[in-house]
């Protein structure tokens, strides 16, 4: 080891050590989904790990390259870290554990908090974003970051949407996904979950580039609104579109097909949250 | 070869064939920057290649996997493709040319159009985005796509900003970057290029998360405005900030540090372009 031993830190020398089983095959989305289930997830990087602790997710363990230890020490002193094992391992050992050559390893495993139901989420929130079948981890993470920035309270994901606690999603969200309640609709409740939102007093806005949808800037923002977004390219399913109260478009130039779904989300969140009042004609 | 010979298509069997020199070491940003200079750039995928032709960039050549040829035939029949060599090569040959195992190869090389000067751009545009030292190809590409969507006319890049014609940038922009004039400020003209914009009648808005900046929604949008964005994390240089006429912030929740720079760009573009007029109090 390149650093002196530190209290409460254990060196891992055998890549097969079961104490680091949480960290295996990190790049295989399918294997990870199976392994993690609804039990745990990965955080990566100093800031996201601090954000994990802030968010109240309970830690399982930490795995670091020895050179990462020094900067991690302040985090180790946080009360939430009491009793949480911190493992260090050399580059080659980490590579065998995670399945690829991971530089600057700074990983944490945390228990997933139980997800609220769609109804529970709807009863506790005023602004919701609904993601149908989004399959790009970066988009989901970036949308979560923008959602927090514009005071969207919660996320509902469709049964086939990407896992919002995927490693890269958590990282791209700058850890913000961990601070939002997420409800996942069951396959038999999709798109019926949209109706559950209506029962809790929500308007639901299906975002679409269709010409005949209502202009985002023309809509009054109700007390409770859910912004419903589909995957880029494919867009929202017809049944989901029909289940919503409004079809809403962001006015864009006719020379461009559509916006990136993350950009569409951010613009809509910003428009919903913008200050209201009497404006003079420009 | 897996397909029958097609008129005007040449098979490449020797990876060292100089006719495909444009396609070498595709994943090395440094090598590519040196090779391409201001002479040529890469397009990738059917739609971006069609967008390249639409944009008036003159083609040098095309390189395809044989299986890609059939869907490419309609593009080959476009008048802009007259005399442009189309090469096909098997998977292993392509891998040796480009330097990695590239599946579904569908690449085109095109001449770079001469860039306008900052002054020429300023005289021909009303809405400009200025990018200082952005170093993420995806962000630059996504910003170009959003810029076109919200009718931003042109892009000014600082001397150290990413090349806007990088392969991945062109792809992420959905080819939209090719439809916008881009001016690159010379090192000795930075941040003086901001002053050039003022001389052409522009207000310049330095986007910043600083609390004491003006709220985006409170600003009247002038006839000519340039939106100035810095790299994520670092933000704009102090000298650049001082050179601008306004410091502008997107109001976001205090619990979040900042927005992704692409999201900040899209929200600002949308706010600048939104319809104006008398609004009633909500």
TrEMBL record, chains A, B:
Q: Name one GO biological process term.
A: methylation
* Protein EC: 2.1.1.-
CDD domains on file: SpoU-like_rRNA-MTase
Question: Domain tRNA/rRNA methyltransferase SpoU type spans what residues?
Answer: 128-268
**Molecular function, one GO term:** RNA binding
Going by the entry's taxonomy, the superkingdom of the source organism is recorded as: Bacteria
Question: Which PANTHER family is this protein grouped with?
Answer: RRNA METHYLASE, RRNA METHYLTRANSFERASE 3
**Pfam families in the cross-refs:** SpoU_methylase
UniProt-recorded name of the protein = Putative RNA methyltransferase
Q: Which Gene3D superfamilies match?
A: 3.40.1280.10
In terms of InterPro entries, this protein maps to:
Alpha/beta_knot_MTases, Ribosomal_eL30-like_sf, rRNA_Methyltransferase, SpoU_MeTrfase, tRNA_m1G_MTases_N
Q: Note the coiled coil stretches, chain numbering.
A: none
Q: Give the record's keywords alphabetically.
A: Methyltransferase, Transferase
């Amino acid at each position: 080891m390149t650093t002196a031993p530190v209290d409460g830190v254990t060196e891992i020398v055998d890549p097969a050590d079961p104490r680091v089983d949480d960290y295996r095959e990190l790049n295989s989305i399918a294997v990870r989904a199976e392994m993690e289930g609804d039990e745990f997830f990965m955080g990566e990087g100093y800031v996201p790990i601090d954000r994990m602790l802030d968010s109240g997710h309970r830690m399982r363990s930490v795995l670091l390259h020895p050179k990462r230890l020094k900067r991690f020490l302040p985090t180790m002193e946080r009360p939430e870290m009491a009793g949480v094992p911190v493992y260090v391992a050399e580059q080659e050992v980490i590579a065998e554990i995670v399945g690829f050559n991971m530089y600057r390893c700074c990983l944490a495993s945390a228990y997933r908090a139980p997800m609220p139901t769609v109804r529970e989420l709807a009863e506790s929130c005023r602004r919701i974003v609904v993601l149908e079948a989004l399959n790009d981890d970066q988009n989901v993470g970036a949308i979560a970051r923008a959602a927090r920035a514009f005071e969207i309270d919660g996320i509902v994901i469709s049964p086939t949407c990407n896992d919002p606690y995927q490693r890269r999603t958590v990282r791209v969200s700058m850890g913000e996904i961990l601070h939002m309640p997420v409800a996942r609709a069951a396959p038999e409740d999709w798109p019926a979950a949209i109706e559950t939102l209506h029962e809790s007093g929500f308007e639901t806005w299906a975002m679409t580039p269709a010409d005949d949808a209502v202009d985002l800037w023309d809509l009054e923002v109700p007390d409770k609104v859910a912004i419903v977004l589909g995957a880029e390219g494919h867009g929202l399913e017809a049944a989901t579109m029909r289940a919503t109260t409004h079809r809403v478009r962001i006015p864009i130039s006719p020379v461009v097909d559509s916006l990136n779904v993350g950009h569409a989300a951010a613009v809509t969140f910003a428009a919903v949250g913008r200050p209201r009042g009497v404006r003079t004609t420009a």
